[in-house]
Amino acid sequence: MQPFPPGPPHVTNNPLTLLRYARGFSADPLGFVGGRFAQYGDLYATVFRGVPLYVTRHPEHIHDALVTHGQSMAKPEKGFGARQLRRFLGTGLVNSNGDFWRRQRRMINPAFGRRQIEALGEVMVRRTEALGDQWPGGPAVLEVGQEMMGLTLGIVAKTLFDHDASGQQDRIANALEQFRNFSGAASILPDWVPLPSVRRVNRALSDVNDVVYGLIDSRRKEDDDALGRRTDLLSALLLATDTAPGARSGERMTREELRDELLTLFLAGHETTSQALTWTWYLLSQHPEIEARLHAELADVLGGRSPTPADALPYTDAVLQESMRLFPPVTTLARVTTAPIELGGYSIPEGADVICWVYFAHHDARWWPEPERFDPTRFLPGRVESIPRGAYTPFGAGQRQCIGKHFALMEARLLLATLAQRFRLSLVPGHPVAKHVAVTMSPKHGMKMRVQRR
Ligand code: HEM
What we know:
Elements: H1 15-27, H2 29-40, E1 43-48, E2 51-56, H3 59-68, E3 73-74, H4 80-89, H5 98-108, H6 114-118, H7 121-134, E4 140-143, H8 144-161, H9 166-180, H10 184-187, H11 196-220, H12 224-229, H13 233-239, H14 255-268, H15 271-286, H16 288-302, H17 314-326, E5 332-337, E6 341-343, E7 346-348, E8 353-357, H18 358-362, H19 405-422, E9 423-427, E10 435-437, E11 441-443, E12 448-453
Parallel strand pairs: 2-8
Antiparallel strand pairs: 1-2, 3-5, 4-12, 5-8, 6-7, 9-12, 10-11
The structure holds protoporphyrin IX containing FE.
């Protein structure tokens, strides 16, 4: 086994080196990392501030990192990104590790069972139809990214809390917006620095806590029978007990654990789906023949009625899968090794950072002929079987795979089917479309589209 893959010069703690690195990366993350893959190959390594860092785009490595060696990998707990996530989301599922994560996942999994998720389908369709009713009767220009964000935010708030007081939702939306916008300037400053940017984030955090603790406390006053009759995820989490043998077996989640999990589900559960839908509308607008085939399937299967979770819509699903291939809402998956592992013929020590670039695996001509072409038939029976493992991971893989995968796929399909039956969306001529890679991959300049009733 070889000791160290090729890679760029080490990044030391020298402030100038760090600044140069941060500037190069944040100006164009895809260009920066793509250039390195072109220079060094599928797996490159460096040492970043004293910690070995391995970066890969190869499906086999991605599969090995997430699945084969899943037990020897943890979510990062150090570094700016991880610290910020922890500050906002505490020890929720996305960033917890070890036995605590295992216990929480065990307790939350049942709420994401097929039957539980399908029961939420009606809320999703009703909310989408209500949005469609609000869209103008005649041709109009809308910022579709914002429309999708508002819709998926409303749906996740309703399905999590059975709550739709828009005033409070706006406070949550505002707090999350601040989190998303958290600027590089704040990264090197402690929380107590009296700068407007730091104060805004602190205020957002305190607003989110007020809203979520308020919801938990009022629901906690209900008895188990009343909670059992509810379909929202908050009630399911309030009733969840750990059934595995062990010290905390039979216990329920504390108020703080509930807060962290709810906020995690809230944040993880709307921005990603909204980005997937926004990119899908864009792609459909650029490919009339694919849009026509989608319309034909919807007419065939639904004939104008509202979709339900039970409807089989294979082409609609393939459109969404292919859209998430070209524009994966989550572009990278980060891990830290908790034991030495082997990756691509190299031995990787304990405590190393491993970054799996989902985006580059999704755009690689070796696994996807004509990788930049939007071609949903890649995901239809007959072709889908030949996708190599690890080459398509919009929801991750292995034990940390997205808990909301089926929720998201059903939601995206119901929303697309509901709106595409009633509207055609076309990109406003001249509107620039570019990728912005941050927590999720969003359109840098938004997505201004002309909306027309069909
Ligand atoms: C298109 C929509 C979505 C995409 C692309 C997506 C993507 C992902 C990915 C890639 C991961 C794994 C991260 C990693 O391995 O480091 C993940 C984890 C997670 N997602 Fe999603 N997600 C989506 C929707 C949702 C929804 C709707 C929910 C909840 C309602 C959700 C909740 C979570 C949670 C809690 C985790 C952490 C799971 C764990 O570590 O145990 N996601 N998601």
